[in-house]
Amino acid sequence: MQVAIDMGESRGAGAAHMDLEELLATRLLVQGNSGSGKSHLLRRLLEQSAPWVQQCVIDPEGDFVTLADKFGHLVVDATRSEAELTRIANRVRQHRVSVVVNLEGLDAEQQMRAAAAFLGGMFDADRDYWYPVLVVVDEAQLFAPAAAGEVSDEARKVSLGAMTNLMCRGRKRGLAGVIATQRLAKLAKNVAAEASNFLMGRTFLDIDMARAADLLGMDRRQAEQFRDLARGHFVALGPAVSRRPLPIVIGPVETSARSTSPKLTPLPEAPADAADLIFTMDPEELARPVVRRPPPPPPPSTTELLAQVTRARAEREAETPVSLFPEIDEAEREETIKTVMTELMSDPDAGFRNTAQLYQDFLVRCRIRRVPGEPPPLPAFKRLLAVARVAPDEETVASDGWQQAMTLSETLTDDVQGVFLVVAQAALTDAPCPSDATIARLYGTHSTSRARRLLTWFEERGLIVIRTDFRNQRIAAFPDLGVETAPGDPNGPDMLDDQRGAAE
C-alpha cells in the first residue's frame, strides 16, 4: 500500500509528498542548526504518518510528549532501570503501541544508556513482532557521537552500537530510522551513511555545508545556499521524496512543543526590597535537596595511558582478525554498476545533461540498488560514462582493436572520450561514420559545427584521418588501428534517436 505523507509545499512544484512505504525501507537524515525547524519537521512527519504506522520517538528534551494528547502516544519515562526499559520495548513491539521515550531530566550518560536499552529491546524483539516501526531520534549526535566526549567510553560504545543497529540492520526487523542532528560533523559517519533520504536545513559552518552538499550530490559552490535557508525551509533528496534536490517548506503542525524559542518580555517592576527577596531562604527550599553532579574523575597519568595502550595492542594481536563486514563480490558489484549505467543512459535527455548532473543521478540510483562498497569517484564515473555512451557488444569489447582504442582514448580529456570511442566502434564494426548530429549529441550540444571542429581536433592530434568519397560521404580512418568506417552522410539524422525509436 502506497501512502503519500504531505510534508508541505515545494517551490514551484505544488505539494511536497513523502512516500511512507519507501521511507520505511530507506531511512531519513535531517540536519539543521538550532532554530532551523528540525523539530517542527519531525513533528509534521509524525503527525501525518501517525494513522498509518507505529512510531517510537527518542526524545531527549521532552518536546514530543504532547503527541500523547492528540494522537494517543504512550509516554515512557526513562527514569527506570535499563532492564526494565528493555522489557518495555519488547512489549511495545508486541502490542504495536506508539510511544515517546522521555529522557528529560537525565544527564548525558544516563540518556545514552537509557536510549541504548530501549532501542536494543526493540531490535531484539521476536521475529513474530517485526512489524514496521518509524523510529525517530532527535538530537542524534548525542547518541551516535563522532568522537569521545565527557561520557564514559562504555556508555558511548553501547549507545553508538544501538544507533548503528537501528540504521544498518534495523530495516529487516521493520525498524525505520529517522535521525535529526544539528551538525553532521558531530554525527558518526557509519550512522549517517546508511540514510538514503536527506532533508538539509540552515547551517553555517563550512564543514557541515560541505558534507550536506556532498550527500545531496551538489557542487561546493552550491553549498552556500544552506546559509540562506529560512526557518522551516529544507532541501530534500532521496527515493522517498525526490530524485533531484528539491527545496520544500514544511507545513503547519497540530500539536506544539512544551518548550518554545525565547521571546523578549518586559522586566517586572522592581520590588520594594529586592535584597530581602533574594537573600532570605524560603522554608520550602529546605525540603528540596540540592542535587550536584559528582566531579569528573582525575585524568589518567602518562604511565597508566602507556600501560593501557600496551595492553590493548597485545589483546589485538592475540585475537584472530575477523572482518566486520561481509566480503564484497566484485563481479556482482561491477554488474550492478553496469546495470545502473544502462538505466542512466536510457534517459532520453541524458545526452544533454552535464557530467555533474549525471553523477548525482548515478549516486542516487546506486543507493536505491544498494550497491555494496563505496560508489565510484567522479573520475572513474567519467570513464564509465564514456564507455556507456558507446555500449559496444561483447565481441567488439573482446577484440584487440577495441582495447587499443580504449588506450588511445585515455590520452584525451573526459568530455571527448565518448565521441572518440563511438567513431572507433563504427570503424571496428565497419559501420557508417556517425553524422554531425550524432557526434553533437554525444558531445552534449546541439551545434553540428562544434561536432565538425571536434573531428578536426582529433585529426590534428593524429588519431584519425577524415576523407570523403565521390558521393561526399565521410570516412574516418584510424591509422593506429588499421581500420576505417564505412561511408556515412555527415548531414544525416541523429543515429541515437533512430536507435531509440527502433527499440521503442
TrEMBL record:
Q: What are the AAA+ ATPase domain coordinates in residue numbering?
A: 24-324
Protein's UniProt name: AAA+ ATPase domain-containing protein
Q: What InterPro entries does this protein's entry cite?
A: AAA+_ATPase, ATPase_Atu1862_pred, HerA-like, HerA_central, P-loop_NTPase
Domain of life of the organism in this record? Bacteria
UniProt cross-references to Gene3D superfamilies, sorted A to Z: P-loop containing nucleotide triphosphate hydrolases
Spell out the residue ranges making up region: Disordered: 481-504
